Each structure stands twice: as structure tokens, then as C-alpha cells.
């Protein structure tokens, strides 16, 4: 009995797309949180660096979220690189061809789950997904 290797290729393409989006999302969120962190420091600082407990809690909470987003962004990027390398291996097997596919994508950042038409092109050891 043969297994359906198309599902492996589809999963790799899906991972590539999802992880790339997650990396961008976490990087943007981290950047936004850093701006909020700096804004809070500036707004609460009267030049004496004395904060109320509530102000300190807000600053600390934003900082912890910022660090968490940075960690999540790194994890997503590392996993994205793995998916990209796997796609490159698939490209080597397919001798630098291209794949046209309908890829089901889960809900990300409040968007509904949907299907996306993609073309995966392999050339010169690289991969492009559009």
C-alpha cells in the first residue's frame, strides 16, 4: 500500500506559509509593545523615576509581553527556516520544478481559516512561495 506523500508536501508548504505569517505577526506585535513600553516610561516619568505601584505593574506587564513576543518570534523564525529547508529538499527531489496547490490555512491573528492558491517555485537551490 502506498502512502500519500502529497499530504507531506502540502503540510510543509502550509507550515512555511503559517510560520512566516506568525514570525511577521510576533515581530510587529513586539515592535508595537516596545513603543507602548517607551511611551509609558516617558508618560510616567517626571524626571525623578518614581512610579506608583499601578504604573510599575503596567510597565512590567508590557515589558513581559514584549519579551514573550520576542521569544515566540524567534521560535516561529527557527521553525520557518526548518520548513524552508524541507521545501528546498523537495525542490532537489523535483529537479527545480514548481508546484501549484490549494493550501488550507488555519485562522491566524483573528482571520478566518481559508484556502490559498500558491505556486511554489524551486530554482538554483532556493524556494519561492507566491
Describe this structure in words.
The chain has 130 residues and is of the alpha+beta class. It has a domain at 6-93. The chain is 62% helix and 17% strand. A three-stranded antiparallel sheet has the order 1-2-3. It is elongated. The relative contact order is 0.17. Mean pLDDT is 91; it is low at 1-5.
Descriptors for this entry?
130 residues; alpha+beta; three-stranded antiparallel β-sheet; 3 strands; 62% helix; 17% strand; elongated
Sheet having the most strands: 3 strands, antiparallel
Helix % is: 55-70%
Report the mean per-residue pLDDT as an integer.
91
Task: Give the SSE string.
Answer: HHEEE
How many strands in all?
A: 3
Q: Which consecutive residue ranges, at least 5 long each, have pLDDT under 50?
A: 1-5
Order the strands across the largest sheet as they lie in space.
1-2-3
Number of helices: 2
- What is the beta-strand fraction? 15-25%
Described by the principal axes of the CA atoms, the overall outline is elongated
- In terms of structural class, how would the helical and strand content be classed? alpha+beta
Summarize it:
The protein has 130 residues and is α+β, with helices and mostly antiparallel strands. It is 62% helix and 17% strand. The protein has a domain at 6-93.
Amino acid at each position: 500500500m502506498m502512502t500519500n506523500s502529497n499530504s507531506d508536501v502540502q503540510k510543509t508548504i502550509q507550515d512555511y506559509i503559517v510560520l512566516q505569517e506568525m514570525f511577521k505577526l510576533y515581530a510587529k506585535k513586539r515592535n508595537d509593545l516596545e513603543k507602548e513600553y517607551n511611551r509609558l516610561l516617558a508618560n510616567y516619568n517626571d524626571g525623578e523615576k518614581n512610579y506608583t505601584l499601578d504604573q510599575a505593574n503596567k510597565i512590567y506587564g508590557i515589558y513581559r509581553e514584549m519579551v514573550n513576543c520576542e521569544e515566540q518570534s524567534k521560535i516561529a523564525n527557527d521553525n520557518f527556516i526548518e520548513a524552508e529547508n524541507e521545501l528546498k529538499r523537495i525542490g532537489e527531489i523535483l529537479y527545480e520544478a514548481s508546484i501549484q496547490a490549494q493550501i488550507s490555512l488555519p485562522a491566524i491573528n483573528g482571520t478566518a481559516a481559508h484556502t490559498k492558491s500558491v505556486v511554489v517555485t524551486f530554482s538554483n537551490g532556493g524556494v519561492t512561495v507566491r
